[in-house]
Every structure is written in C-alpha cells, then in structure tokens.
Specification:
The complex is a heterotrimer of chains A (386), B (125) and C (261). Chain B has 125 residues and is mainly α. Chain B has helices at 4-18, 20-28, 48-69, 87-94, 98-109, 115-118, and strands spanning 73-75, 82-84. Classes of the chains: A mainly alpha (386), B mainly alpha (125), C alpha+beta (261). At the A-C interface, helix 5 and helix 6 of A face helix 3, helix 4, helix 5 and strand 7 of C.
Chain lengths: 386, 125, 261
C-alpha cells in the first residue's frame, strides 16, 4: 500500500519538497540546540516549560480526537463516517509522533530518553504519558493498516481487529487524561490544580481535533478525487459545536471559581493572563484573541445555515483551532508558571530557534500525514475505477 | 539478467564498502599498532586483565553504589584492599593524565565516554 | 511485495525490537559489587535543618553560605538571571512565606531576606514526578540527584513548590568562578541540580557547609543540622523550645527545613 506514496503529481511532490526543506531547517536548528543547550530557547528557571510542551499538550488532543469518528462509526454504526474513519486514524498517527518528538526536543539530555524505559517509574505521570502515547500510536498504526488493507483487497476487516478498535476508544480518552494529569496533580502550581483540567483538555481536544479533520476533509476533496461526503463533514461540524460549547462553558466555570472566591492563589494567574500583572502583560492580547475567536466561532457555529456553507465552515474551523491552540498551549502551560512559587513574574516568549524546531516537527507531522493521506486517496481512486 | 553489468558492479562496490573496516588497516594503515597507555607504578584496584575488560562496568557499579546506595568504600575482589570509589580521587590519583592513559585506548577504539563532562580530570603530567 | 518476504521482514523487525528489550535484562544480571559505607560516615534517620531567621538575615551570613556552597560544589555563576543556578540564596520573607505575611506584619520580618534552599521534604513532589528516578529520597532523608540518569525533562522543577531546583541551560564549566574545585564534579548541560545537603560531607562525618559557615559568621546558633528522628538531638530540642515555621505547609510536602522566628 505504501508504494502509492511514491507516485504523485507535481503538487504532491512540491508539497513534500517544501516540507522537506522545513524539516531540514528544524533538524539543523535542533543540532545547534543539542550542541549549545536549551539556552537557545526562551525558557528560564522560572518558566521551565514553554513552546515545545505547549505543542505536546495541543497535539495529544488532536491525536485523541480520532475517537470522535471511531466511536460513532464502530459503536453506533453511523455509516456516514465509514469513509472518514481512516482519515481520523491516519491523523492520530502523525499527531502522536509529533507529541513524542516535542518531548524529545524539550529534554536536556535527549540521548538518555532510554532511561525512562530502563528505569520505569509508575509514580510519574510522565512515564505513563510516554507509555500510553506509544501504545496509542501502535494501536492506530495497527488498526489503520489492517482495516484499510482489508478495504483495499475488497474484504471485510479480520474479526480480531474489532476488540482492538474498541480498545482504542478508552485509550484515546486516557492519553489526554494522563497528559492533563501531568499538570493537575501538582500542588506547587495552583493554576493547574483543578479537577476540571482533564475534562477541559478533552473538550478542547474534541473541538480542535475534528475541526482539523474537517479542514483536512475539505482539502482532500479539493486536491484528490476522494470525497469524504457532506454528511460526514456536517456531523463533524456538529461534534465540534457541542465540544466548543462545553469548552467555553468550562472556561467560564473556571473564571467563576477564581473570581468569586477572590483567592489570590487562584486569582493571580487569571489576572496575569487576562489583564496583566505587575507591568507584565505579554499574554494578554493572545488570550483575548483566543477567547474572542472561540466565542465568536461558537456563536456562528450554532447556526446550521452557516455550518453548511463550507467556505464559512473552513474559516470557522481555522478560528477554532487557533483559539484552542493559543488557550491550551501558551495560555495554559506558560501561565502556570507566572507568578512563580516564590512570587516572581518572569515572562516567556519563544525564540526564533525554538520556532524553527517547532516548525520542523510540524513539517515532519504533515509529511507523514501527506504520505498516509496520499495512500488513502490513491487506493480509493483505484477502487473506484474498478 | 537485465542490466547484469550494472548489478554486478553494484554488488562489488557494496562488498568493498561493507568490508571496509576489515581491509583498510591491513592494506593502508598500520596493522601492528597497539595503543600504549602509560602505566603508573603500583597496583590498581583490581588486576590488569580485569580492568582492561571490565573497567567500564566497574565504574558504572561504583557510580550506582556511591550515588544511589550511599556506599563509598570498595572492597577489591582480587586483593581485598579498600578504596574510595571515586574516578577523580582514586583512579586518577595514579592515572594522573587523561591524555597519556585514558585517551590512548579510547582514541584508538573511537570511544568517547562522557565521564569528563562532569568529573574533573587532574592537570597531571 | 511477495507475501512470504513481507512476513519475513515483519518477523525480523519484531525480533530485533524484542532483542533490544532483552539487553538491559542481561546486563542487569552482572557481577555484584562488594561495597560498604565510608568509615566515619554520618548515620541518621531523618536529616533536617533549622535556620534562625534573624541571625541569618545579615547579608554577610547569606553571602558566606552561598559562597562556600557554590564553590565546593562547582555551582556556576550565570550572569543571565533567567538562567541562573543557585543551591542556596535569599528571598524576601514575603516570598518565602506568602501565607505568613499580612498588611501589618512587623518590619523586622516584612521584606527582609531569608535564606532558602531545598527543603528535603518528607513527601517530596519532585521525587513523585521524576520519570527515571533520577531524584529520590534516600533512607536518611536527603533528596538526592543522580546526574547520570537525569534526562533533563525539568518535571521536578515544575513540581517543586519552593523553586529550589535549577537547570543547566548551557555548559556550566565556563561559568564556574573563580575556578573549578577538583574534589567535586561539575554538571554537564541539560541536567537539573539542587542542594544535596552536602551528602559527600555527610559521608565523611561532616555537617553541611552552609551550617558551618553561618555559625562561624553569625557567632553560633544561626543554623542547626541534625537528626530529626533522634528525639535527643540538638535540633529537636531547639525546635521544641522555639517557635518555628515551615514553608507553605498546607501543600503537604512536609519540609525538613525549619525557620526559627
């Protein structure tokens, strides 16, 4: 099946070449980071996690969101998703891989990553995060390849794959819950010490992931002969809308607890985030942009007529992805550190090398995604021709 | 077969490249060269044969014993003597020069242990 | 591709993965080491420190403590405050004890410098989160760092409620001033470090260097070091007599560094 990826038109190879350039830039910058250390990033003693971990947090959500197509199709026989499930699974694979790459480039001693496996530490959420991410990557590879391989041969998938698919459903929820547990069990960081963090992660994942999937479906329809189907796209749009309602609700609920209780421990972080504090306000414009985009997109998504207009849907999905990328990434991760446990306000902004490495990793993800989607569309075109 | 000339040429090139480590030194290098680390007087914590083969593992075990178990005194298996388990203070109190001892074999075998990123080497002769 | 060739490659791949997992197992079954503690090493059940806040407020005391600690442990002096590495330093009382200051706190405490360091907590959150057990709590109470195992993920820094840990953002060696102490290793870039309660001195029957320095400069009874597990030790007697604080006790980490006010 993979041989389909070696044949393509100018646009296909052009895209891969462009991504290849970005990957090269990222790799070279990473080698510089290996040599000089993480000093080339904007991270600091007070803000030890930033852009890289923010991408991890966002992408785990995208990976988990495959469950939003798998569950309706396999558990509830929602036939319209039949042609789209593989796209969801083949999105989860590069998303998972990118998560692992972002952890890898964030480490001070990446060559020692094997220590996590030589010295397993069940007390650490990070250990479990690594395990479940690897497991989920493997699951999606197995499921995607087996089911799609069967489709290509014109056969029903083998019976043993069904329980594996069912397993992937709670597993998807678990990868994002465990990522949330990285943050929500730390008594040192009052901004994250909230039970609602895991539900918030899941809600934002189910809003941003399917949004990305909608965009990918529209792109696939434009550039290949494979049409995911209007019904599937519309159902995804409905899912995004509901998830976004829950996400906005959760944000408001968090704001209420912080504002009404008036507890400095909780209030300080929200104040810094939305209003600025002690003369530091780097994240304020970002947060307001994110919230306006989210609420604005939500209001518009509530109208079926707007959802059904695919140009509008495309723009709204972009808005939703941007809003959640900001809110979950920079908004959540960085704000946890400001103010620090000692009450200091040290701001953070990613540096240019940090950005290049990030772009390089995203390019690797999109490269894998392009290859996998090319296989899917080519095989489907071939089947349709018969 | 088709393209027989190109394929056979390709196989020959491949074989030459893959056996490179085996023929390069006898043909173009110095096959009789052996690294000569400068040995100080006296005896080491264990016998020479043992150290040549196991010094890496010994140092790993010393590291775990000192750092993780809190035990700093080594009892020599060969001689029964007691030594403090320390690269800098014990090993390098006799092997005072990294270039004249450690590097001799490490450079020859192309090994680059990162011990000295942290452990301070004495400015020995 | 031919079916049997595919199957062969699949099996070969899985075997290689499986063999790779077997290697650490084989190495673990190695020769056991004969080792024992150094002669004269301190033995304790629960090491702790008590710091007299007023006596240690004087800048000479803080400077002396930091100077000796940082020099005998090769702690680098990084100019960029965002990337600095410090094992012991002073913070304003308001920052070290945010739950203990109010509008009318006495000026003898409010805004005054207090010496802070790793608390070697009874229930350390840094140890809980480390994915490789590169940091762990020793039986005698010291929260240790294994620089060989640390992967530099900085999760421990994230989890520490006291800001006690520092990361090596670049190679520290050029920044070790005035010169490297050969008796103790340095760190490499990419690992986390913090106060180790002078574990290398405890192994020789000496107390932490900062305690000696503080008592020397402040004229005694400025810092106490001892076994909190020994009801007759000096530190326990002092803590029973004088009023003492812990940093952020409501977080439940149970710090073993006490502040005598």
């Amino acid at each position: 099946m993979l041989e389909k990826a070696f044949y393509g038109g100018k646009k296909y190879w052009g895209l891969l070449a462009f991504l290849g350039l970005l990957i090269a830039a990222g790799v070279i910058t990473f080698l510089i980071q290996l040599n000089r250390g993480l000093t080339i990033t904007g991270l600091s003693r007070d803000v030890p996690w930033g852009f890289y971990i923010a991408q991890l947090t966002f992408l785990v959500g995208v990976a988990a969101s495959a469950v939003m197509v798998v569950l309706p199709y396999y558990l509830h026989n929602f036939k319209a998703f039949g042609r789209v499930v593989i796209l969801g699974e083949f999105l989860a694979i590069p998303a998972c891989f990118m998560c692992m790459l972002f952890v890898f480039v964030d480490m001070g001693q990446p060559m020692r990553v094997v220590n996590m496996f030589l010295h397993p530490s069940p007390n650490s959420p990070m250990f479990w995060d690594a395990m479940v991410l690897m497991g989920y990557l493997f699951l999606n590879l197995l499921i995607g390849w087996t089911v799609f391989g069967a489709e290509r041969k014109g056969l029903p998938p083998p019976r043993w794959i069904k329980p594996v698919i069912i397993l992937s459903i709670p597993w998807a929820v678990s990868i994002h819950t465990i990522t949330a547990f990285l943050y929500s069990g730390l008594e040192a960081r009052s901004f994250w010490m909230t039970a609602i963090l895991a539900p918030r992660f899941l809600a934002s994942a189910f809003a941003s992931g399917p949004s990305l999937l909608i965009i990918l479906c529209l792109v696939v329809r434009k550039f290949t002969r494979f049409d995911p189907g209007k019904q599937a796209i519309q159902k995804l749009a409905q899912i995004v809308t509901y998830a976004l309602v829950v996400n906005v609700f959760f944000v408001l609920v968090e704001l209420f607890t912080a504002l009404y209780s008036d507890m400095p421990e909780h209030l300080h972080h929200f104040q810094y985030l939305f209003l600025g504090s002690h003369g530091h306000d780097a994240l304020v414009p970002w947060m307001w942009t994110s919230q306006i985009l989210a609420v604005g997109a939500l209001v518009l998504m509530l109208f079926p007529k707007i959802r059904q207009k695919e140009t509008a849907l495309f723009a709204l999905c972009l808005a939703i992805i941007s809003a959640i990328w900001i809110e979950k990434g920079l908004g959540m991760v960085v704000t946890g550190f400001i103010p620090s446990p000692l009450g200091h306000y040290t701001e953070y902004g990613p540096t240019f090398p940090e950005g290049l490495i990030t772009i390089g990793i995203y390019a690797i993800g999109f490269f894998i995604l392009t290859v996998l989607y090319k296989v899917v569309s080519s095989v489907r075109e071939e089947l349709e021709a018969k | 077969m088709y393209d027989a000339g190109k394929i056979i040429l390709g196989i020959v090139v491949f074989l030459v490249l893959i056996t490179f480590p085996f023929w390069f030194t006898p043909a173009l290098g110095n096959p009789d060269y052996r690294p000569e680390p400068e040995l100080p007087a006296g005896k080491c914590v264990e016998s020479r044969e043992y150290m040549v083969h196991w010094h890496m593992d010994l140092l790993d075990q010393w590291r775990d014993s000192v750092v993780r178990d809190g035990n700093r005194m080594y009892v020599s298996g060969e001689y029964g003597d007691r030594y403090e388990m320390s690269l800098t203070r014990t090993c390098m109190s006799c092997h005072t020069s990294k270039e004249k001892f450690c590097d001799r074999c490490h450079d020859y075998t192309g090994v680059d242990p990162y011990c000295w990123d942290c452990h301070v080497e004495p400015k020995g002769q | 591709m031919d079916e049997s060739r595919r199957n062969f490659l699949k099996i070969a791949g899985c075997s290689a993965l499986g063999a790779a997992w077997g290697i650490p197992v084989v190495r673990a079954i190695g020769k056991a080491l004969q080792a024992e503690p150094a002669p004269g090493a301190f033995e304790g059940k629960r090491w702790g420190l008590a710091i007299d806040v007023q006596k240690c407020m004087h800048p000479d005391v803080v400077r002396a403590c930091q100077q000796v600690c940082h020099s005998i442990h090769n702690v680098p002096q990084i100019d960029n405050p965002e990337e600095e590495i410090k094992w012991i330093w002073s913070e304003k009382f308001d920052n070290a004890f945010p739950d203990k200051v109010h509008e009318f706190t006495t000026d003898s405490l409010k805004g005054q410098p207090v010496m802070v360091l790793c608390n070697h907590c009874e229930r350390p959150s840094c140890v809980r989160v480390c994915p490789t057990q590169a940091t762990w709590k020793r039986e005698d109470g010291v929260v240790m760092m294994d620089m060989h195992r640390c992967i530099g993920c900085r999760y421990c820094i994230v989890a520490c409620p006291f800001g006690a840990r520092s990361f090596n953002w670049s190679d520290p060696r050029p920044h070790i001033k005035p010169e490297i102490d050969p008796e103790y290793p340095t760190r490499s870039r990419g690992v986390v470090e913090k106060c180790n309660l002078c574990a290398e001195r405890l192994a020789k029957g000496l107390g932490p260097a900062c305690v000696d320095a503080a008592n020397q400069v402040a004229g005694g009874e400025a810092m106490y070091f001892g076994d909190l597990g020994d009801p007759h030790s000096e530190i326990v007697r002092v803590l029973r007599v004088r009023h003492s604080l812990q940093r952020r006790p409501h977080l439940g980490t149970q710090p073993n560094v006490f502040y005598l006010v």
